[in-house]
């Protein structure tokens, strides 16, 4: 069994974004036609008791408060969180680590590049590596996600590189092949994928999606020039390291023949019209078989 | 006039703290006998329209959502926030800066030590200094808080050093005299103080409090060995850089003759019994003339 909780479904900045009065953000703020969403993160478990967090969003403190499965019970201090797996070093994927201070043991996993970005920022020393060991992920190799008591969780993780870009604050250092990851998690029977950022859908990614049972995929933008056309930013989706949902080469097109998995869009930017519940774009993606992720959604892959 | 909104009233970790099942945190989580609080921050304004944020807590995104006065209206992007003033470089005072990314101009003010700590962490480069200028505070000198349009806000800020300690993640670098600040803000008529962390109450601090109209003071712990006795941490209040509310040399005792100001405890740790609404300690501090800060509380100092 794999249980999944969507802790947050929005891209960096969240929905609404702090400084935005664009129509989507106003709708989310006033709860009229669009639901607010915190920044993207998943909780994953094989037993419904011990959880692994995929990306530590800046909203993690609030996400834990809103998610009873992640509340500690019993002794004075503790957590059902066994580990955190990072797909990249972007602010919206790592800032929540600063919430997980307070000398609480868990395992922190990420690529060499991402762990190096943490090491380059002394503030993350608040998570003492003696208490929160930092474990580099070996790409394309299945590793058992271990509970804190040393017993295998029942989940196997395979991290793989996907086209992306360096974190905004580290762009000057240039691009590294392991800077953006996809994660494949299996209980040996069913498989889920988490690919919240992806600049290009390769044939390898299509193969992985076709074989999976549940896929959370980069839903940042509807179209590549969306931010530019809306007057929100000079940056294209490609410049930000994201393929766009409805463009040629995007997930709707590329995964159209992948009929096995449940397909979910996550890491959705506040400019994306699929966030409006009644928009034509929302109807389009739903008609194409996609679910638009919301905070608090749960998914279960049952072992037959 | 000075308007103040308490954006958050809790110490680092917030209330409840993510990994705590101590009685206070359970009470806050279940809303039985104690109100939840986000991490300490104030918003201050001379006109109720343009605001300055004192400390950028990790909860700042949620705090802005919960505070209509801080919502931008009108154009696509913007903010009523004119500037952010930091009292120290602790995680609970600076992490919220990462929420204020998105190329939105405002002024960032802090001591040389605190600005150096930001510079030592490239992640804060997400706030491009070309867009968010970093202005070192000159201690003990009144400076006009300027709105973004270059017009004085009507508020004068004086920052002064108080006994404290280096941020947790920078303790190895040793202590610096300007690492912990108190802030005095006046409209030329009324004066408020913000001293969320203070390891020792000096005669200078007593003089400032006696002359002020509104004081927000370090309410981290009730007694110095509170965390140790509760089995929560091996650290004393002194080790964490905080004088304790009810100890000899604490604010209740030292400011007992300061009858002019309204006195408010802020930056309250989740172990502090004053967070229980019906506790004897809560009654004690209220009887001594103190208010225990809550998120969303507002204060106004009127100019006669």
Notable traits:
18% helix, Metallo-beta-lactamase, Chain A, globular, homodimer, 304 residues, alpha/beta
Tell me what the structure shows:
Chains A, B: It comes from Gluconobacter oxydans (strain 621H) (Gluconobacter suboxydans). Chains A, B: Pathway: Cofactor biosynthesis; pyrroloquinoline quinone biosynthesis. Chains A, B: Pfam families: Lactamase_B_2. Chains A, B: This is Coenzyme PQQ synthesis protein B. The structure is a homodimer of 304-residue chains. The relative contact order of chain A is 0.17. Chain A has a single domain, classed as Metallo-beta-lactamase, Chain A (4-Layer Sandwich), CATH 3.60.15.10. Chain A has 9 helices and 14 strands. The model of chain A has no long low-confidence stretch (mean pLDDT 96). Helices cover 18% and strands 23% of the residues of chain A. Chain A is α/β, with parallel strands linked by helices and 304 residues long. Chains A and B meet through helix 2 of A and helix 2 of B.
Number of strands of chain A: 14
Strand content of chain A: 15-25%
CATH architecture of chain A: 4-Layer Sandwich
The biggest sheet of chain A, with number of strands, parallel, antiparallel or mixed sense and barrel status, is: 7 strands, mixed
Oligomer: homodimer
Instruction: State the order of secondary-structure elements of chain A, H for helix, E for strand.
Output: EHEEHEHEHEEEEEHEHHHEHEE
How much helical structure, as a percent, in the residues of chain A? 10-25%
- Determine the structural class of chain A based on helices, strands and strand pairing: alpha/beta
Residue runs with pLDDT of under 50 for 5 or more positions of chain A:
none
Number of domains of chain A: 1
Mean pLDDT over all positions of chain A: 96
In spatial order, strands of the major sheet of chain A run: 6-5-4-3-2-1-14
CATH topology of chain A: Metallo-beta-lactamase, Chain A
In DSSP terms (H or I, runs of 4 or more residues), the helix count of chain A works out at 9
The coarse overall form of chain A would be globular
Overall radius of gyration of chain A: 18 Å
GO biological process, one term (chains A, B): pyrroloquinoline quinone biosynthetic process
Protein name (chains A, B): Coenzyme PQQ synthesis protein B
Function (chains A, B): May be involved in the transport of PQQ or its precursor to the periplasm.
InterPro entries (chains A, B): Metallo-B-lactamas, PQQ_synth_PqqB, RibonucZ/Hydroxyglut_hydro
